[in-house]
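Fold this complex.
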Amino acid sequence: MKSFTTVTSIAAPLPEADVDTDIIFPARFLLLLDREGLGRHLFHERRRPAEGAPPFVLDTPPYDRAEILVTGPNFGTGSSREQAVWALADFGIRVVIAPRFGEIFFSNCFRNGLLPIVLGEAEHGAVMRAAEAGEKVSVDLEAQRIVLADGAAIGFAIDSYRRRALLLGLDEIGAILADDAADIAAFEARQKAATPWLHLSREQLSHFDDLRTSEA
Amino acid sequence: MSALTLYDKVWRQHVVKSYEDGSDLIYIDRHLVQEVSSPQAFAGLVAQNRTIRRPDAHVSVADHAVPTRHRDRPLPDGLAARQVSRLESNAERFGIPYIPMNDRRHGIVHVIGPELGFTLPGATLVCGDSHTCTHGAFGALAFGIGSSECECIFATQTLRQKKQKRMRVMLDGALPAGVTVKDIILALIGEIGTGGGNGHAIEFAGSAVRALSMEARMTLCNMSIEAGSRVGMVAPDETTFAYLKGRPLAPSGADWDAAVAHWRSLATDADAVFDREVRLDVSALSPRISWGTTPEENLPITGRVPDPAAESDPSRRARIARSLAYMGLEPGKPLAEIPIDRVFIGSCTNSRIEDLRLAAKVVAGRQVAANVAAIVVPGSAGVRLQAEAEGLDAVFRAAGFEWRDSGCSMCVAMNDDRLSPGERCASTSNRNFEGRQGQGGRTHLMSPAMAAAAAISGRLTDVRTLS
Ligand code: SF4
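Structure:
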């Protein structure tokens, strides 16, 4: 995973609540099998406005090069589709700032080098104003700090493990396999003794033996 | 240790190890795999040359992209066919069961997990799908995850997680006639908002929950995610055990007795403390419908389309105006006067046998309005066969409904079942987001009985005025 340290960029303002995963990445593009190149479907409908309507913020220079997105409460609410995060990352977004996030979206971000930041109302308002003014915003993960063009610094909270994982670009699966394999095996042995029904028997699994041949 | 909740107990029984930062490595017992979130996870395994740790812990099925008619023909060439066959070949390669679309066990992941007895009380269960919270109805700790987390489950059977806060939703009182569990969950979301459960694992408790069938409990837990919570649970009881007994993957013989004894011990201790408590008296509820583009924007059917001008908070006012513009609704119009074009009875929220019985009861002896195209999509082949044995398909067909094969269908519009721009649909699904049922489509969420009533009258309708 790409590691994350500091991002300095103008920030695209999207001052809207409840921007859900269907808006971020419409379901029909979920048929694609890749995780690369999905940026072209990011906010697909919004980026094709009706005639005469203004273009979407991410198509309005200079925001088309923004690496930071500032948005309203409940961003990423809805589906678990990681495509929403892949598409943002592919477009070039590295940081999303909102008062609150959809939970699955929030945790998906960390697995893809994207930093979601939750801010309180006043701080969020200050960053949104900077975004709307087209000013540069600097996000420093090491220091857990956002610095605005006027020098104002805004601290943000982040889970210590997730912070470290982002800073290092950690391969979590590799880490679990390397460090925790013995604990997992011991857990399985204990569980098999205590609650054996959680491990399906060969006899139970034979329920699936006819899968290749059956018809409804 | 002090008194524990259901969530605490199941969590604690699955801690492989605890880290210094307060997170735990949680063991995952069950993983449901579908075609949309899995291809990238399998590809990750292949790229890293990793294997599946426990093939017996996974079951795979294609539900989102499959068509719901003409299943006797091969899938037409295209993205959907490619996605479905990719799941089949991945399952074959990694040695996990794959249920084909014409199998008697086929269906939406959240419908077939319980049907198989794959979903069990006290188990941890995940799926790359946000509505995995459905399985919490059994007292399982079940939650939706992203593709990267699916890959982690395949390789390690664990996830590093931090415990959520605990929230209890107490539901008491008796449901009035014509009001269903869908109206309860819509009312709850209307009250606490789509972010109301954020950071919390919900437990649904109280006399009204005890009185619910397993099907109804699944509808309740299914929409926990629409209340902002990844987890919604109900303590297992006699209703749970009766549902599970004899299911193919449920324990049997001496294992069954031991399991039931264990499951009984999972209930929240009497003096356990929750971080947040919400109460709702269900005896005061009416049938509800959504009018906007988030599930929280819902009202009793007796109400009127809200007026943004009456809202003092500017961002809320803008939100309402935006929703009304998308939905093509005028402020002040009685909800029960809104004409519809389509009806969808289906989805992992409301496609089980009880849902179809409820809808069929409303439909029986009546005709779908001339301006409406209506479909019923059973959640699984099992539900479809049961409904056909009861003659429900004949009731729906005689009224003018189309009777389809199992799948997600018009809940997510990844197959041919979708709204055209501007079309308005009475839907039993769980999300009314912009474009959810097709680009430009307009969704009104409601119960199966209310959707059936709308089909008959051709407009949003209070089902209580039909009978
Ligand atoms: S029916 Fe709808 S909500 Fe349920 S799993 Fe399928 S797409 Fe998701």
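The beta strands of chain A are 6-14, 68-71, 95-98, 115-118, 136-140, 145-147, 153-155.
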